[in-house]
Design goal:
Blueprint: H1 13-25, H2 29-42, H3 46-61, H4 69-75
Helix pairs in contact: 1-2, 2-3, 3-4
Length: about 90
């Protein structure tokens, strides 16, 4: 689903995207949700915010899982961003 070349410069995000690709290929939804939670936790670090937002939007756009909190957040027009991270 994700082109790993786009993330090869980011040593934090790359392994998570690689893992996401493998889990999505195998339809391991529960494990995918765990990786999504890891990504959400990293949103507080501004250096990863754009990459993570991109990843989450692709998942939501492809309707990853209607029961997933990310899909619900994006489908109702609201992103799950911790307001304590100084994003405006």
């Amino acid at each position: 689903m994700f082109n790993l070349d786009e993330f090869e410069q980011d040593q934090v995000i790359y392994p998570l995207v690689e893992k996401l690709n493998k889990l999505l290929d195998k339809n391991k939804t529960e494990k995918v949700e765990k990786v999504i939670n890891q990504l959400e936790e990293l949103l507080v670090e501004q250096e990863h915010a754009i990459s993570i937002s991109y990843i989450l939007s692709i998942l939501a756009e492809n309707d990853f899982n209607p029961n997933c909190s990310i899909s619900k957040s994006f489908s109702n027009g609201k992103t799950k961003v911790n307001r304590g991270n100084n994003f405006k």
